Amino acid sequence: MKIARFRSNGRTVYGVVQGDKVVEIRGSIYTRFRLTDTKHELQDVKLLSPTDPTEIWCPGLNFANHLEYAAGVLGDDAPEVPTHPNPWIKARGSLTGTNEAIILPNDSTDVHYEGEAVAVIGKTCRRISPEEAPKYILGYTCGNDVSDRAWQGDDWTFWRAKGSDTFAPVGPWIDTEVDPQKLEMIVRLNGKEVQRGYTEEMLFSFAEIVSYISQQVTLHPGDLLFSGSTGVTIALKPGDNVDVEIPNIGVLSNSVEAES
């Protein structure tokens, strides 16, 4: 099942995507809902970020080949292969949806895409095991952990490097049936493939990261957890268009604009 959050006629509602249509639901996507008789053409609605989360989590360097990339960039300061997840929070205000613009701040200098898979928390969870974690995840979607490499090196934290407005595109909808550790993540910049990765190569699985976070922090329905990024990335510039595709889920598409 594919669940979308969208705006139509001034209303923000959830619906189930069926082909080129979306059917409004009544109830909660986190408990119970039913389909209504109200249908919309997908092209006639504005898709929003799939949830309105309390928090957005990222796992840090979670792919071996991205660690290698970090080593090339940071040299002696590069991190070692982690022995446990190293999660951090991406600013809630960075969230945006598909077909929205990624805005490059005026004083940014080296902003990159990072195509990732994103888990959507479906139930409140606290101190759960990795084995229990899948029961607390509603589904998965596409994400782009937009990052300014210069600010990553200059600042003690990622507050602006990864938390600037529009630096967390997520969408287009939630898929509840995919296998989270068998997803392919493809990034295309202006139609050309520039990144491809596989969630089976995550150093720590979604279940392990959710469990790890839940030992100290309560996760709530709608919270988002990124997978981490793979390989090497390149800088974005105004006028670019970046697509993050996960086959069997969909395509997250965003233009790139300079701050006005």
Which key phrases capture this entry?
260 residues, mainly beta, SH3 type barrels, Fumarylacetoacetate hydrolase, domain 2, 2 domains, 12-stranded mixed sheet, 5-stranded mixed sheet, 19 strands
Explained architecture:
By secondary structure, this protein is mainly beta. It has two domains: 1-48, FAH (SH3 type barrels); 49-258, Alpha-Beta Complex (Fumarylacetoacetate hydrolase, domain 2), CATH 3.90.850.10. Helices cover 10% and strands 39% of the residues. The protein has helices at 64-74, 149-154, 206-214, and strands at residues 2-8, 11-18, 21-27, 33-41, 46-47, 56-58, 88-90, 95-96, 102-104, 111-112, 115-121, 137-144, 147-148, 168-175, 184-189, 192-198, 224-226, 241-246, 250-258. The model has no long low-confidence stretch (mean pLDDT 94).
Question: Percent helix among the residues?
Answer: 10-25%
Q: Using DSSP, what is the number of strands?
A: 19
Q: How many individual domains?
A: 2
The SSE order reads EEEEEEHEEEEEEEHEEEHEEE
Assign the CATH class of the largest domain.
Alpha Beta
Strand content range: 35-45%
C-alpha end-to-end distance: 39 Å
**Shape annotation:** globular
Helix segment count? 3
Low-confidence stretches: none
CATH topology of the largest domain: Fumarylacetoacetate hydrolase, domain 2
Strand-pairing-aware structural class:
mainly beta
Mean pLDDT: 94
Largest sheet: 12 strands, mixed
CATH architecture of the largest domain: Alpha-Beta Complex
CATH superfamily of the largest domain: Fumarylacetoacetase-like, C-terminal domain
Radius of gyration: 18 Å
